[in-house]
Design brief:
The structure holds two protein chains of two kinds. Chain A has twelve helices and eight strands. By secondary structure, chain A is an alpha/beta fold. The radius of gyration of chain A is 18 Å and the shape is globular. In chain B, helix 5 runs parallel beside helix 6. Classes of the chains: A alpha/beta, B alpha/beta.
Amino acid sequence: MSRYSPEEKVKLARHPERPGTADFIDALFTDFFEQRGDRLCGEDGSIFGGIARFHGRPVTVLGHRKGKNLEENLTCNFGMPSPEGYRKAQRLMRQAEKFSRPIITFVDTPGAYPGREAEERGQGEAIAQCLALMSTLEVPIISVITGEGGSGGALALAVANRVLMLEHAVYSVLSPEGFASILWKDSARAGEACGVMKLTAQDLRRGGIVQGVLREPKEGAHTDWQAAFRTVDAALTHELAALDKLKGPALARQRYDMFRVMGQNLAPAGREEP
Amino acid sequence: MNQTFSRRRDRLLTYRAMREGKITSSRRTGCSACGEESPQLEWDRNLQVCPRCGFHAPVGAYYRLSNILDPGSFQELEEKLSPADPLAFPGYPVKLSELEQSTGLKDAAVAALGKIDGRRAVFAVLDSRFLMGSMGTAVGEKVTRAAEYAARKKLPLIIFSASGGARMQEGIFSLMQMAKTAAAVQRFQSGGGLYISCFTHPTTGGVTASFASLGDITLAEPGALIGFAGPRVIEQTIKEQLPEGFQRAEYLLDHGFLDRIVPRSEWRAVLSQLLALHEKGGRP
Protein backbone atom coordinates (compact mmCIF):
# COMPACT_ATOMS: atom_id res chain seq x y z
CA MET A 1 0.00 0.00 0.00
CA SER A 2 2.90 2.34 0.67
CA ARG A 3 4.90 3.86 -2.15
CA TYR A 4 8.15 2.79 -0.55
CA SER A 5 9.49 -0.47 0.79
CA PRO A 6 10.69 -0.57 4.41
CA GLU A 7 14.28 -0.57 3.15
CA GLU A 8 13.65 2.54 1.04
CA LYS A 9 11.99 4.22 4.01
CA VAL A 10 15.11 3.64 6.13
CA LYS A 11 17.09 5.48 3.45
CA LEU A 12 14.54 8.32 3.35
CA ALA A 13 14.47 8.56 7.14
CA ARG A 14 18.25 9.03 7.09
CA HIS A 15 18.26 11.44 4.14
CA PRO A 16 20.76 14.23 4.92
CA GLU A 17 18.42 16.90 3.55
CA ARG A 18 15.46 15.87 5.64
CA PRO A 19 14.34 18.61 8.04
CA GLY A 20 15.70 17.98 11.52
CA THR A 21 14.89 19.11 15.05
CA ALA A 22 16.57 22.50 14.66
CA ASP A 23 14.62 23.13 11.43
CA PHE A 24 11.29 22.24 12.99
CA ILE A 25 12.01 24.45 16.00
CA ASP A 26 13.00 27.30 13.71
CA ALA A 27 9.91 26.99 11.54
CA LEU A 28 7.15 26.13 14.02
CA PHE A 29 8.13 28.10 17.11
CA THR A 30 8.87 31.71 17.95
CA ASP A 31 10.93 33.32 20.66
CA PHE A 32 13.17 30.24 21.04
CA PHE A 33 15.56 30.41 23.96
CA GLU A 34 18.11 27.60 23.92
CA GLN A 35 18.97 25.94 27.23
CA ARG A 36 22.28 24.19 27.56
CA GLY A 37 24.05 21.86 29.93
CA ASP A 38 23.02 19.15 32.37
CA ARG A 39 24.21 21.07 35.50
CA LEU A 40 26.21 17.98 36.45
CA CYS A 41 29.22 17.84 34.19
CA GLY A 42 28.65 18.86 30.62
CA GLU A 43 26.78 20.01 27.55
CA ASP A 44 25.78 17.67 24.76
CA GLY A 45 24.97 19.23 21.40
CA SER A 46 23.21 16.10 20.15
CA ILE A 47 20.20 17.10 22.21
CA PHE A 48 18.93 20.54 21.32
CA GLY A 49 16.18 22.31 23.19
CA GLY A 50 14.83 25.14 25.26
CA ILE A 51 11.81 27.34 25.82
CA ALA A 52 9.78 28.76 22.95
CA ARG A 53 6.31 29.80 21.97
CA PHE A 54 4.02 27.55 19.97
CA HIS A 55 1.28 29.73 18.51
CA GLY A 56 1.99 32.21 21.25
CA ARG A 57 1.99 29.74 24.10
CA PRO A 58 5.17 28.95 26.07
CA VAL A 59 6.31 25.36 25.66
CA THR A 60 9.46 23.35 26.24
CA VAL A 61 10.74 21.93 23.00
CA LEU A 62 13.67 19.56 22.53
CA GLY A 63 14.96 16.83 20.30
CA HIS A 64 17.88 14.96 18.81
CA ARG A 65 20.05 17.04 16.49
CA LYS A 66 22.28 15.45 13.87
CA GLY A 67 23.71 18.61 12.29
CA LYS A 68 23.66 19.73 8.66
CA ASN A 69 27.34 19.74 7.74
CA LEU A 70 30.44 17.95 8.90
CA GLU A 71 31.31 20.57 11.49
CA GLU A 72 27.80 20.45 12.96
CA ASN A 73 27.75 16.66 12.69
CA LEU A 74 30.81 16.54 14.91
CA THR A 75 29.40 18.96 17.51
CA CYS A 76 26.20 16.95 17.53
CA ASN A 77 27.97 13.59 17.37
CA PHE A 78 25.66 12.71 14.43
CA GLY A 79 22.67 12.84 16.75
CA MET A 80 23.94 10.18 19.13
CA PRO A 81 23.51 11.54 22.67
CA SER A 82 25.70 10.91 25.68
CA PRO A 83 24.39 10.78 29.25
CA GLU A 84 24.87 14.56 29.51
CA GLY A 85 22.31 14.99 26.74
CA TYR A 86 19.73 12.79 28.43
CA ARG A 87 20.30 14.53 31.75
CA LYS A 88 19.91 17.92 30.07
CA ALA A 89 16.65 16.63 28.62
CA GLN A 90 15.51 15.61 32.12
CA ARG A 91 16.38 19.04 33.44
CA LEU A 92 14.41 20.79 30.70
CA MET A 93 11.40 18.51 31.13
CA ARG A 94 11.34 18.85 34.92
CA GLN A 95 11.39 22.60 34.45
CA ALA A 96 8.56 22.38 31.94
CA GLU A 97 6.45 20.69 34.58
CA LYS A 98 7.38 23.29 37.17
CA PHE A 99 6.16 26.08 34.89
CA SER A 100 3.22 24.08 33.49
CA ARG A 101 4.55 24.15 29.96
CA PRO A 102 3.62 21.41 27.50
CA ILE A 103 6.59 19.42 26.19
CA ILE A 104 7.17 18.77 22.51
CA THR A 105 9.98 16.45 21.46
CA PHE A 106 11.42 15.67 18.04
CA VAL A 107 13.01 12.26 17.68
CA ASP A 108 15.76 11.63 15.14
CA THR A 109 18.71 9.53 16.24
CA PRO A 110 20.59 6.42 15.15
CA GLY A 111 20.74 5.60 18.89
CA ALA A 112 22.52 6.60 22.08
CA TYR A 113 26.28 6.87 21.62
CA PRO A 114 28.15 3.61 22.32
CA GLY A 115 31.34 5.20 23.61
CA ARG A 116 33.70 4.72 26.49
CA GLU A 117 32.94 7.97 28.34
CA ALA A 118 29.22 7.57 27.70
CA GLU A 119 29.37 4.22 29.52
CA GLU A 120 31.53 5.57 32.33
CA ARG A 121 29.01 8.32 32.97
CA GLY A 122 26.07 5.94 32.99
CA GLN A 123 24.38 5.88 29.59
CA GLY A 124 21.96 3.21 30.78
CA GLU A 125 21.08 5.08 33.95
CA ALA A 126 20.57 8.35 32.05
CA ILE A 127 18.14 6.74 29.61
CA ALA A 128 16.33 4.86 32.38
CA GLN A 129 15.82 8.11 34.31
CA CYS A 130 14.36 9.77 31.21
CA LEU A 131 11.83 6.94 30.85
CA ALA A 132 10.91 7.03 34.53
CA LEU A 133 10.62 10.82 34.61
CA MET A 134 8.51 11.10 31.47
CA SER A 135 6.10 8.50 32.82
CA THR A 136 5.22 10.80 35.74
CA LEU A 137 5.14 14.35 34.32
CA GLU A 138 1.84 16.15 34.75
CA VAL A 139 2.04 18.26 31.60
CA PRO A 140 1.13 17.26 28.02
CA ILE A 141 3.94 15.55 26.11
CA ILE A 142 3.82 15.10 22.35
CA SER A 143 6.63 13.36 20.47
CA VAL A 144 7.16 13.48 16.73
CA ILE A 145 9.47 10.92 15.20
CA THR A 146 10.81 12.86 12.25
CA GLY A 147 13.54 10.61 10.91
CA GLU A 148 15.31 7.73 12.58
CA GLY A 149 13.90 6.45 15.85
CA GLY A 150 16.82 4.30 16.91
CA SER A 151 16.45 2.12 19.98
CA GLY A 152 16.50 3.24 23.62
CA GLY A 153 18.23 6.46 22.63
CA ALA A 154 15.07 7.45 20.76
CA LEU A 155 12.57 6.08 23.28
CA ALA A 156 14.26 8.21 25.98
CA LEU A 157 12.55 11.25 24.42
CA ALA A 158 9.37 9.49 23.29
CA VAL A 159 7.42 8.47 26.39
CA ALA A 160 4.63 10.84 25.40
CA ASN A 161 0.85 11.17 25.57
CA ARG A 162 0.87 11.08 21.79
CA VAL A 163 3.63 9.66 19.65
CA LEU A 164 3.35 10.82 16.05
CA MET A 165 5.47 9.75 13.12
CA LEU A 166 6.22 11.29 9.77
CA GLU A 167 5.11 8.96 7.01
CA HIS A 168 8.60 7.83 6.03
CA ALA A 169 10.21 7.93 9.46
CA VAL A 170 11.26 4.64 11.06
CA TYR A 171 11.31 3.50 14.68
CA SER A 172 12.92 0.28 15.80
CA VAL A 173 14.46 -1.72 18.62
CA LEU A 174 17.87 -1.39 16.96
CA SER A 175 19.24 -0.23 13.61
CA PRO A 176 18.56 -2.78 10.85
CA GLU A 177 22.35 -3.25 10.61
CA GLY A 178 22.62 -4.02 14.31
CA PHE A 179 19.58 -6.26 14.19
CA ALA A 180 21.02 -8.32 11.31
CA SER A 181 24.37 -8.47 13.03
CA ILE A 182 22.89 -9.78 16.29
CA LEU A 183 20.41 -12.25 14.85
CA TRP A 184 22.22 -13.45 11.76
CA LYS A 185 25.80 -12.42 12.55
CA ASP A 186 25.79 -10.50 9.28
CA SER A 187 25.15 -6.75 9.11
CA ALA A 188 25.05 -7.01 5.31
CA ARG A 189 21.58 -8.53 5.68
CA ALA A 190 20.24 -5.17 6.92
CA GLY A 191 17.92 -4.90 3.93
CA GLU A 192 16.27 -8.16 4.83
CA ALA A 193 16.05 -7.01 8.46
CA CYS A 194 14.09 -3.90 7.40
CA GLY A 195 11.47 -6.25 6.00
CA VAL A 196 10.86 -8.27 9.16
CA MET A 197 11.31 -5.56 11.80
CA LYS A 198 7.97 -3.74 11.28
CA LEU A 199 9.70 -0.39 11.64
CA THR A 200 7.59 1.77 9.32
CA ALA A 201 5.11 4.34 10.58
CA GLN A 202 2.26 2.33 9.04
CA ASP A 203 3.27 -0.90 10.78
CA LEU A 204 3.76 0.88 14.10
CA ARG A 205 0.37 2.58 13.85
CA ARG A 206 -1.24 -0.82 13.31
CA GLY A 207 0.69 -2.24 16.25
CA GLY A 208 -0.55 0.55 18.54
CA ILE A 209 2.97 1.87 19.14
CA VAL A 210 2.32 5.29 17.57
CA GLN A 211 -0.93 7.17 17.57
CA GLY A 212 -0.67 9.11 14.34
CA VAL A 213 1.07 9.05 10.97
CA LEU A 214 1.76 12.43 9.35
CA ARG A 215 1.67 12.52 5.56
CA GLU A 216 4.82 13.69 3.84
CA PRO A 217 4.93 15.80 0.68
CA LYS A 218 5.57 14.27 -2.74
CA GLU A 219 8.73 12.17 -2.61
CA GLY A 220 9.44 12.79 1.07
CA ALA A 221 9.87 15.59 3.61
CA HIS A 222 13.24 16.59 2.15
CA THR A 223 11.61 17.66 -1.14
CA ASP A 224 9.28 20.24 0.41
CA TRP A 225 10.13 21.42 3.89
CA GLN A 226 7.28 23.94 4.06
CA ALA A 227 4.70 21.26 3.41
CA ALA A 228 6.25 19.08 6.12
CA PHE A 229 6.21 22.00 8.55
CA ARG A 230 2.53 22.70 7.85
CA THR A 231 1.59 19.08 8.48
CA VAL A 232 3.51 18.86 11.75
CA ASP A 233 2.21 22.24 12.89
CA ALA A 234 -1.39 21.21 12.29
CA ALA A 235 -0.91 17.87 14.06
CA LEU A 236 0.73 19.46 17.11
CA THR A 237 -2.02 22.07 17.33
CA HIS A 238 -4.70 19.41 17.12
CA GLU A 239 -3.12 17.06 19.67
CA LEU A 240 -2.30 19.83 22.10
CA ALA A 241 -5.89 21.02 22.06
CA ALA A 242 -7.06 17.48 22.81
CA LEU A 243 -4.58 17.05 25.67
CA ASP A 244 -5.50 20.43 27.14
CA LYS A 245 -8.80 18.86 28.18
CA LEU A 246 -6.94 16.59 30.63
CA LYS A 247 -5.74 17.76 34.03
CA GLY A 248 -2.18 17.07 35.22
CA PRO A 249 -2.67 13.73 37.01
CA ALA A 250 -4.92 12.52 34.19
CA LEU A 251 -2.18 13.29 31.68
CA ALA A 252 0.33 11.20 33.62
CA ARG A 253 -2.24 8.43 33.98
CA GLN A 254 -3.16 8.41 30.28
CA ARG A 255 0.53 8.19 29.33
CA TYR A 256 1.24 5.44 31.86
CA ASP A 257 -1.77 3.42 30.74
CA MET A 258 -0.86 3.78 27.08
CA PHE A 259 2.57 2.23 27.58
CA ARG A 260 1.28 -0.20 30.19
CA VAL A 261 -0.76 -2.14 27.65
CA MET A 262 1.97 -2.37 25.02
CA GLY A 263 2.73 -6.04 24.70
CA GLN A 264 0.26 -6.91 27.44
CA ASN A 265 -2.42 -8.38 25.21
CA LEU A 266 0.29 -10.42 23.54
CA ALA A 267 1.27 -12.28 26.68
CA PRO A 268 -1.73 -13.99 28.24
CA ALA A 269 -1.58 -14.91 31.87
CA GLY A 270 -3.30 -16.75 34.63
CA ARG A 271 -3.87 -14.49 37.57
CA GLU A 272 -3.84 -16.56 40.72
CA GLU A 273 -2.51 -14.53 43.57
CA PRO A 274 -1.03 -15.88 46.74
CA MET B 1 21.76 -23.62 61.95
CA ASN B 2 22.39 -22.01 58.60
CA GLN B 3 25.51 -24.08 58.12
CA THR B 4 23.59 -27.22 58.78
CA PHE B 5 21.06 -26.12 56.21
CA SER B 6 23.57 -25.38 53.52
CA ARG B 7 25.45 -28.63 54.18
CA ARG B 8 22.21 -30.56 53.90
CA ARG B 9 21.24 -28.72 50.75
CA ASP B 10 24.63 -29.38 49.18
CA ARG B 11 24.37 -33.03 50.01
CA LEU B 12 20.85 -33.25 48.60
CA LEU B 13 21.85 -31.40 45.44
CA THR B 14 24.82 -33.67 44.95
CA TYR B 15 22.83 -36.83 45.56
CA ARG B 16 20.15 -35.68 43.17
CA ALA B 17 22.67 -34.73 40.50
CA MET B 18 24.41 -38.09 40.89
CA ARG B 19 21.13 -39.94 40.77
CA GLU B 20 20.26 -38.15 37.54
CA GLY B 21 23.66 -39.09 36.19
CA LYS B 22 24.69 -35.45 35.77
CA ILE B 23 27.80 -35.88 37.86
CA THR B 24 29.92 -38.66 39.11
CA SER B 25 32.09 -38.00 42.10
CA SER B 26 35.06 -37.54 39.80
CA ARG B 27 33.46 -35.11 37.35
CA ARG B 28 35.35 -31.88 36.86
CA THR B 29 34.08 -28.65 35.32
CA GLY B 30 36.14 -25.96 33.61
CA CYS B 31 35.79 -22.26 34.35
CA SER B 32 34.98 -20.07 31.37
CA ALA B 33 36.94 -17.21 32.93
CA CYS B 34 40.22 -18.76 34.11
CA GLY B 35 40.08 -22.03 32.18
CA GLU B 36 40.96 -24.09 35.25
CA GLU B 37 39.05 -27.24 36.03
CA SER B 38 37.58 -27.96 39.45
CA PRO B 39 35.54 -30.89 40.74
CA GLN B 40 31.83 -30.30 40.16
CA LEU B 41 31.31 -30.94 43.85
CA GLU B 42 33.40 -27.89 44.70
CA TRP B 43 31.48 -25.73 42.21
CA ASP B 44 28.21 -26.84 43.80
CA ARG B 45 29.43 -26.16 47.28
CA ASN B 46 30.64 -22.76 46.06
CA LEU B 47 27.25 -21.81 44.54
CA GLN B 48 28.68 -22.05 41.00
CA VAL B 49 31.44 -19.58 41.76
CA CYS B 50 34.77 -20.81 40.39
CA PRO B 51 36.72 -22.28 43.32
CA ARG B 52 39.97 -21.15 41.67
CA CYS B 53 39.37 -17.59 40.41
CA GLY B 54 36.08 -16.54 42.00
CA PHE B 55 34.29 -16.08 38.66
CA HIS B 56 30.56 -15.92 39.31
CA ALA B 57 29.18 -18.20 36.61
CA PRO B 58 25.65 -17.33 35.46
CA VAL B 59 22.99 -19.41 37.23
CA GLY B 60 19.32 -20.06 36.60
CA ALA B 61 16.52 -18.11 38.26
CA TYR B 62 15.18 -20.95 40.44
CA TYR B 63 18.66 -21.92 41.59
CA ARG B 64 19.39 -18.33 42.54
CA LEU B 65 16.18 -18.01 44.52
CA SER B 66 16.77 -21.33 46.25
CA ASN B 67 20.00 -19.95 47.65
CA ILE B 68 18.43 -16.75 48.93
CA LEU B 69 14.95 -17.51 50.20
CA ASP B 70 13.89 -19.12 53.46
CA PRO B 71 13.26 -22.80 52.75
CA GLY B 72 9.60 -23.39 51.92
CA SER B 73 8.76 -19.69 51.42
CA PHE B 74 8.90 -19.69 47.61
CA GLN B 75 5.58 -19.03 45.87
CA GLU B 76 5.81 -18.40 42.16
CA LEU B 77 3.84 -15.47 40.70
CA GLU B 78 2.43 -15.25 37.18
CA GLU B 79 3.95 -18.58 36.26
CA LYS B 80 1.57 -19.09 33.35
CA LEU B 81 2.59 -15.92 31.59
CA SER B 82 3.82 -16.98 28.15
CA PRO B 83 5.74 -15.28 25.38
CA ALA B 84 4.17 -14.05 22.16
CA ASP B 85 5.44 -13.60 18.63
CA PRO B 86 4.26 -10.11 17.66
CA LEU B 87 6.43 -9.81 14.53
CA ALA B 88 5.64 -13.35 13.34
CA PHE B 89 9.39 -13.71 13.28
CA PRO B 90 10.67 -16.69 11.27
CA GLY B 91 11.68 -19.58 13.50
CA TYR B 92 10.89 -17.79 16.77
CA PRO B 93 8.00 -19.97 18.05
CA VAL B 94 10.10 -23.10 17.46
CA LYS B 95 13.03 -21.55 19.30
CA LEU B 96 10.74 -20.63 22.20
CA SER B 97 9.35 -24.11 22.58
CA GLU B 98 12.81 -25.69 22.34
CA LEU B 99 13.97 -23.41 25.13
CA GLU B 100 10.91 -24.19 27.21
CA GLN B 101 11.79 -27.87 26.84
CA SER B 102 15.44 -27.45 27.75
CA THR B 103 15.13 -24.94 30.59
CA GLY B 104 11.66 -25.56 31.99
CA LEU B 105 11.03 -21.82 31.74
CA LYS B 106 8.24 -20.18 29.75
CA ASP B 107 10.44 -17.15 29.15
CA ALA B 108 13.49 -15.45 30.65
CA ALA B 109 11.97 -14.19 33.91
CA VAL B 110 10.65 -15.79 37.08
CA ALA B 111 8.60 -13.82 39.60
CA ALA B 112 7.99 -15.02 43.13
CA LEU B 113 6.84 -14.16 46.57
CA GLY B 114 9.32 -15.27 49.20
CA LYS B 115 10.82 -14.62 52.59
CA ILE B 116 14.29 -13.81 53.84
CA ASP B 117 14.67 -14.36 57.58
CA GLY B 118 10.90 -14.25 57.82
CA ARG B 119 10.50 -10.93 55.97
CA ARG B 120 8.36 -11.08 52.86
CA ALA B 121 9.39 -9.56 49.53
CA VAL B 122 8.52 -9.85 45.85
CA PHE B 123 11.28 -11.13 43.59
CA ALA B 124 11.82 -11.05 39.85
CA VAL B 125 14.83 -12.90 38.49
CA LEU B 126 16.02 -12.94 34.89
CA ASP B 127 17.49 -16.17 33.57
CA SER B 128 20.29 -15.92 31.02
CA ARG B 129 19.77 -19.49 29.81
CA PHE B 130 16.69 -18.27 27.96
CA LEU B 131 17.85 -16.20 24.94
CA MET B 132 20.43 -14.39 27.05
CA GLY B 133 17.76 -13.17 29.45
CA SER B 134 16.60 -10.76 26.78
CA MET B 135 13.48 -8.69 27.46
CA GLY B 136 10.54 -9.31 25.19
CA THR B 137 6.90 -8.73 25.99
CA ALA B 138 6.65 -11.61 28.47
CA VAL B 139 9.70 -10.51 30.48
CA GLY B 140 8.54 -6.88 30.47
CA GLU B 141 5.07 -7.90 31.51
CA LYS B 142 6.34 -10.15 34.28
CA VAL B 143 8.62 -7.49 35.75
CA THR B 144 5.76 -4.98 35.54
CA ARG B 145 3.31 -7.34 37.23
CA ALA B 146 5.86 -8.11 39.94
CA ALA B 147 6.14 -4.36 40.64
CA GLU B 148 2.35 -3.98 40.63
CA TYR B 149 1.93 -6.96 42.93
CA ALA B 150 4.53 -5.57 45.32
CA ALA B 151 2.70 -2.22 45.29
CA ARG B 152 -0.68 -3.84 46.05
CA LYS B 153 0.73 -5.95 48.86
CA LYS B 154 2.98 -3.16 50.18
CA LEU B 155 6.04 -5.38 49.96
CA PRO B 156 9.62 -4.60 48.92
CA LEU B 157 10.66 -5.47 45.36
CA ILE B 158 13.96 -7.20 44.62
CA ILE B 159 15.00 -7.75 41.00
CA PHE B 160 18.00 -9.76 39.80
CA SER B 161 18.95 -8.79 36.26
CA ALA B 162 20.94 -10.82 33.75
CA SER B 163 20.16 -9.80 30.22
CA GLY B 164 21.55 -9.13 26.78
CA GLY B 165 18.97 -6.33 26.46
CA ALA B 166 15.87 -6.05 24.32
CA ARG B 167 14.64 -9.23 22.59
CA MET B 168 15.36 -8.68 18.89
CA GLN B 169 12.75 -11.21 17.74
CA GLU B 170 9.96 -9.10 19.23
CA GLY B 171 11.23 -5.87 17.69
CA ILE B 172 9.65 -2.59 18.74
CA PHE B 173 7.40 -4.38 21.24
CA SER B 174 10.54 -5.29 23.18
CA LEU B 175 11.69 -1.67 23.09
CA MET B 176 8.39 -0.55 24.60
CA GLN B 177 8.97 -2.87 27.56
CA MET B 178 11.72 -0.48 28.63
CA ALA B 179 9.19 2.34 29.02
CA LYS B 180 6.64 0.04 30.62
CA THR B 181 8.96 -1.47 33.23
CA ALA B 182 10.68 1.84 34.04
CA ALA B 183 7.28 3.45 34.58
CA ALA B 184 6.10 0.53 36.71
CA VAL B 185 9.05 0.54 39.11
CA GLN B 186 8.92 4.34 39.24
CA ARG B 187 5.24 4.22 40.22
CA PHE B 188 5.98 1.52 42.81
CA GLN B 189 8.77 3.63 44.29
CA SER B 190 6.79 6.87 44.39
CA GLY B 191 4.20 4.97 46.40
CA GLY B 192 6.89 4.47 49.05
CA GLY B 193 8.04 1.01 48.04
CA LEU B 194 11.62 -0.17 48.46
CA TYR B 195 13.18 -1.45 45.22
CA ILE B 196 16.53 -3.23 45.36
CA SER B 197 18.14 -3.79 41.96
CA CYS B 198 20.77 -6.53 41.74
CA PHE B 199 22.93 -6.74 38.61
CA THR B 200 24.41 -10.10 37.68
CA HIS B 201 26.66 -11.14 34.83
CA PRO B 202 26.02 -9.96 32.16
CA THR B 203 23.42 -7.17 32.04
CA THR B 204 23.41 -4.83 29.07
CA GLY B 205 21.20 -2.87 26.68
CA GLY B 206 17.54 -2.23 27.33
CA VAL B 207 17.50 -3.84 30.77
CA THR B 208 20.38 -1.67 32.00
CA ALA B 209 18.64 1.32 30.39
CA SER B 210 15.34 0.71 32.17
CA PHE B 211 14.24 -0.90 35.44
CA ALA B 212 17.67 -2.28 36.42
CA SER B 213 19.18 1.22 36.75
CA LEU B 214 16.36 2.63 38.86
CA GLY B 215 16.87 0.89 42.20
CA ASP B 216 16.70 2.70 45.54
CA ILE B 217 19.59 0.42 46.37
CA THR B 218 21.75 -0.92 43.53
CA LEU B 219 23.96 -3.96 44.02
CA ALA B 220 25.98 -6.25 41.76
CA GLU B 221 27.79 -9.57 41.81
CA PRO B 222 31.61 -9.46 41.59
CA GLY B 223 32.91 -9.20 38.04
CA ALA B 224 29.48 -8.73 36.47
CA LEU B 225 29.55 -7.03 33.08
CA ILE B 226 27.11 -4.10 33.25
CA GLY B 227 26.58 -1.57 30.50
CA PHE B 228 24.34 -0.09 27.87
CA ALA B 229 26.36 -0.85 24.75
CA GLY B 230 28.31 -4.10 24.69
CA PRO B 231 32.11 -3.89 24.79
CA ARG B 232 32.50 -5.18 21.21
CA VAL B 233 30.21 -2.50 19.80
CA ILE B 234 32.12 0.18 21.71
CA GLU B 235 35.49 -1.05 20.48
CA GLN B 236 34.20 -1.07 16.90
CA THR B 237 32.84 2.47 17.33
CA ILE B 238 35.80 4.15 18.98
CA LYS B 239 38.43 1.97 17.32
CA GLU B 240 40.48 1.57 20.45
CA GLN B 241 40.88 -1.10 23.06
CA LEU B 242 38.95 -0.71 26.26
CA PRO B 243 40.77 -0.60 29.58
CA GLU B 244 41.06 -3.67 31.78
CA GLY B 245 37.96 -4.20 33.87
CA PHE B 246 35.84 -1.80 31.77
CA GLN B 247 32.08 -2.16 32.49
CA ARG B 248 32.73 -4.64 35.29
CA ALA B 249 30.92 -4.28 38.60
CA GLU B 250 34.09 -2.99 40.31
CA TYR B 251 34.46 -0.33 37.58
CA LEU B 252 30.86 0.80 38.05
CA LEU B 253 31.35 0.97 41.80
CA ASP B 254 34.33 3.28 41.21
CA HIS B 255 32.25 5.44 38.85
CA GLY B 256 29.42 5.88 41.31
CA PHE B 257 26.76 3.59 39.88
CA LEU B 258 26.58 0.91 42.58
CA ASP B 259 26.12 0.90 46.33
CA ARG B 260 27.96 -2.34 46.91
CA ILE B 261 29.33 -5.49 45.33
CA VAL B 262 27.87 -8.61 46.87
CA PRO B 263 29.51 -12.04 46.49
CA ARG B 264 26.99 -14.79 45.75
CA SER B 265 27.36 -16.35 49.17
CA GLU B 266 26.39 -13.05 50.84
CA TRP B 267 23.17 -12.14 49.01
CA ARG B 268 20.94 -13.58 51.67
CA ALA B 269 22.65 -11.75 54.51
CA VAL B 270 22.85 -8.42 52.68
CA LEU B 271 19.24 -8.51 51.50
CA SER B 272 18.13 -9.55 54.97
CA GLN B 273 19.90 -6.53 56.45
CA LEU B 274 18.32 -4.17 53.92
CA LEU B 275 14.84 -5.61 54.43
CA ALA B 276 15.25 -5.21 58.19
CA LEU B 277 16.28 -1.57 57.68
CA HIS B 278 13.05 -1.03 55.73
CA GLU B 279 10.43 -2.69 57.87
CA LYS B 280 6.89 -2.48 56.45
CA GLY B 281 8.39 -2.40 52.97
CA GLY B 282 9.93 0.98 53.64
CA ARG B 283 6.61 2.65 54.40
CA PRO B 284 6.19 4.65 57.61
